[in-house]
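Incident log entry.

Two folding requests arrived from the same account within the same minute. Monitoring flagged them as a possible duplicate submission, but the sequences differ. Recording both here for audit purposes.

Request one:
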Amino acid sequence: MTKPHDLAAVIARVSQRYQVPRDILLAIVAPVITDLASADPDGLERKLTRRVPDIRALRTHLAQPSADAVLAGWRQAAAAACEAGRLAELDKALAQAELHILGGLAGLAELPAERRIAAGEARADRGTTSLLQLAPEGCREASRRFAEAAAIVGLADPDRSHELALRQADALSRLGEEFADRSGYEAAIAHLRTLLTGLDNFDDTVRWAATQERLGLALVGLGALNGDSALLRQAASCYRTTLEDLRPDHAKPLWIRLQRHLGTLALQFGEADGDVGLIEEAVEAFRAALPAMDRAADVQGWARTQFDLGRALSVLGRKTHGMASLEAAFNALQAASEHWTHEASPERWADIQDRMGSVLVAMGGSYSETVVLEEAIAAYGRALDIRQRQTAPLLWATSSANQGEAMMLLARRRKDLVLAQQALAQMVTAVEAAGAAGSKSGIAELQKKLVAAGAIAQDLGRAQ
């Protein structure tokens, strides 16, 4: 249950972290306040955070100077309403600005290109204002307004018109993402496919690629909502096709995103299907993206890509028993931990430690010395410092069982029955904790490890 002080804390945190006026955030939340009694504070924080770029875009646009005194006056009124969180007044001021730009003309064809673009931008700002709403209708209204903005701009600026058409798709996809409304994703997919019919991958490479990216994301969203992996495979095909024609010098940020999208899906399917070729494709995609990234400009994205590369290399190394892949996986995960530190991102840091432990366990079989397994046990221990049983029972169970497995392998190497019994007891407790947490898939995986550990302990007992 969301309590008033929880709501206040969420608003204060988002406001302080992203330097957004509290009044705007309060205005966004206010219309749905009666529905927040059973809401999830974390979910609310994600939705507010999602609207931070929209708020920033509005504030930037409204701060632009204008030589037209009347237009400047309406923009100032809109900016003041935005800062104060008076969203209805903001929309009215933007509507008045648009009417002034149009100047009472009956047809857009009569407008000079510059005024058409300005009118389209005013309509787009109204679309962005609609997106601030925490309700499905806000997404629908935003979609309509972005479609209108794209039509107003039209041939006066084809690139900008296309960007606004993509924003129309984004608004529809948000309807699917935030409100589990399949019709949003379906409408976005249909709209994007229509846009693609008017583009040529050679003559309009960047616009075509940007549209393909949005199509892939919408397919992934709908596939996740429907549980339909075929849609996710279509998305992967979109990314592959696009990367055949798009080069980094065309649009580097877009090219990087496409590589990361492809890597994520290829790894997902590679793990599910046991397909080494797909896992290798994921590794290649993440490796291609990293050198093109500006770490200083996007340290979060850089860390995420290092982490994803580490995951892919870890899966590949365990699948092929390749030491080079495992060592590279460890290095990539360690690089990610330079940003996602114990102090700054404890949960992510713990995830990294757990995965590094798994990499070390896989490497341990190729070393006669026990130091690698000892390091694995220590890595799991660091993860368990963060993953407490009381607060994260399933994560605790996973890391505890993983540590128990590493201890069992060390016990077998040392022929140490006491350590084996300790490891087995720890793994039994972990399976019980996973059962109490209600994770059927988690229990099944841990029980497999428990059976294998039991066999090792039994063999050591017979040898004593």
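Request two (distinct sequence, not a duplicate):
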Amino acid sequence: MSFVIDNIQNGDLPFSLHIENGVIAAIGTDSAMPADTERYDAAGAMYTPGFVDAHVHLDKALILDRCVICEGNLPEAVRLTAAAKSAFTEDDVYARAEKVLEMAVRAGTQSMRSFVEVDPRAGLRSFHALKRLQSDWADMIDLQLCVFAQDGLTQEMETYTLMREAMALGGDVVGGCPYTDPDPVAHVSLIFDLAAEFNADVDFHIDFNLDPAGTILPEIIAQTTARDWRGRVTVGHATKFAAFTPTRRAELAQAMVAAGIALVVLPSTDSFLNGDRTDPLRPRGIAPAADIAGEGVMVALASNNVQNPFTPFGDASLIRMGGYYANLDQLSSDAQMEHVFQMICENPAHIVRGGPVSLAVGAPADFILIAAQSRSDTIRANRPVMGIVKGGRIRLWAPQPPLTRGF
């Protein structure tokens, strides 16, 4: 397949791309491109690598019709979801997850890490559903599956057996949740043991409250170093960072850098579930991603949940998530907006170890076009994705429709 996209912007001068056989065959001006090839006019849209959502729960998305939220806190969300997933079927999980995956693709996401819960209630049903989805949607999005122990391990070791089975069947990453386990340290050790057995990266949900005491992060840092797993460990949530003193925050962030541990902040879920609703001055409830990144930590923003007890809203748009986070963290400058953009693009690509696709001749033709003047403009104004190219094919082409003015 061969085509040309003209009038793309990625700086000051517009340029054209010739796509052929799945790669970028040429970069240049309109006049330099083959004259007899199908052409598309980008109308000045901005080129960028596709977005990467490094922390999503596809298996438990879109279940609000099965849950009655009363308290709006983490224990309730865990309890309601645990009850609901006992009734999940493979086809049910597939159907709901596919809806979210399509939302994400239309919003410019081209890579994703989804957690998938494996335990005596869910069995391997959700895992099998997402493995099917991973294959069926491989032309549109690179989907990585993190086999995940949401409800603990040490009190229910059957979960560990099921996790091992899922990894043997093609799981990509091992995920743990120490704060739901009666023995968080042992939980961390078991997850690392499983990761070593399958030579897999590790992704933990941690420190999901605003109490500065009792962080599990030092234990994860210590085990990452002892097991030589540098660059292969990610932690999500970590909202205790919002409650640490600046000195303690900097110390832990610097230790994460030394151990090569990345952080994924989940603005929508974290701000919804944290904070006392009876307190009119309740905190924002999110880890200060920009400050932590300022210490050198690789930090990303992600969706986490979409329309379930953890997050009763969402459309899988990372542009929207970036703008929401920037507002919560009171960011304003163009440089800060640029950094937020990196947190949904290059940074999470590094975390899922896919690497951002470069704009170069011979590079895979995987990118998106945004109706924006710049990256900062994208975040500030929630600009729409107007073009998607994946695998060297146009997957979406949606130029802005004209307005009809006059009387």
